[in-house]
Design goal:
By secondary structure, the protein is α/β, with parallel strands linked by helices. It is built from 10 helices and 6 strands.
Length: 285
């Protein structure tokens, strides 16, 4: 009986020590080691939240983030002074035209969740080309060389907007793929050496731009991007400068693209073209 009492007493002492130890340990933790404070927002941040985050769940990333770009290349964030104007431009020339024809929530439903701005050029190693933009898994679009925008020059603004419409068209294709028939129109003329083609050579082969000749997916979205950054008259003039064979091929491709928008989104691409082009002109100084 005495031994049992000693064992019970020893256990009680051990439990008391453990409780005391736990109590002392917990008392030494004064606060969480995780920073839960609310970040201080600038006027620009508040504007971006109001115009992109709240209505469309799109984050505009204009500050440097190593995970947002290829660290092996010399890239840097866009000059902060141009962020709001460029953001307003893409809202006016992309979001609002699509929402006007596709419904108020069109962009909110089908959109990249992050748009990244980079100020400098993204030169491609071992190639005489630069990358103007990237669409990643339908969730992010990255723009490059935004520090060199000139709002007095329509072509300066048209180029990145063409990149925007090009990359967004890829996102639309991920939701609704285009038919295999498109790639059968000029299957033998797609080439990895697309940058060796002049604009005229590409047109004569039936491609709206040299880059369109790189593969069928790029061909499809280049029709869209070119239409949405030119007037109908300008687009017709581009096509009209091709050889008769090239003109017929481009018109065949355009017909499929127009049908794609009507069948999948109930959007008249020619009407969208008018809205986006007018918005482009209104964005200029």
């Amino acid at each position: 009986m005495k031994n049992i009492k000693h064992i019970i007493l020893a256990n009680l002492v051990l439990i008391a020590m453990l409780v005391s130890g736990c109590s002392e340990s917990s008392d030494t933790i004064q606060e969480s080691q995780i920073d839960t404070s609310t970040p201080i927002l600038s006027d620009l941040d508040v504007w971006l939240r109001s115009n992109f985050v709240s209505p469309y769940n799109i984050e505009i990333s204009y500050l440097w983030g190593a995970s947002n770009t290829d660290i092996a290349r010399f890239l840097y964030p866009m000059n902060e002074g141009g962020v709001q104007r460029w953001s307003q431009t893409i809202k006016d020339t992309w979001i609002e035209p699509y929402n006007e024809l596709g419904g108020d929530d069109f962009i909110a439903k089908i959109t990249p969740r992050q748009i990244v701005y980079s100020g400098g050029f993204n030169y491609n190693p071992n190639s005489p080309t630069i990358t103007l933009g990237i669409a990643e898994a339908g969730t992010r679009i990255t723009f490059f060389n935004l520090d060199f925008l000139d709002y007095s020059d329509v072509n300066s603004i048209r180029r990145p907007l063409q990149t925007l419409h090009h990359e967004y068209a890829h996102i639309l294709n991920q939701k609704f793929p285009f038919t295999d028939d498109y790639g059968l129109i000029t299957p033998a003329d797609y080439t990895a050496q697309w940058f060796n083609l002049t604009s005229q050579q590409a047109l004569d082969l039936g491609f709206i731009t040299p880059y369109a000749s790189s593969q069928e997916g790029e061909d499809f979205v280049e029709i869209i991007a070119t239409m949405l950054t030119t007037s109908k008259a300008d687009f017709d003039a581009i096509v009209g400068s091709a050889s008769p064979t090239g003109q017929a091929i481009i018109r065949q491709k355009q017909e499929i693209v127009v049908a794609y928008f009507q069948e999948n989104f109930e959007i008249d691409l020619f009407e969208l073209q008018e809205l986006t082009y007018q918005a482009l002109l209104e964005s200029l100084d």
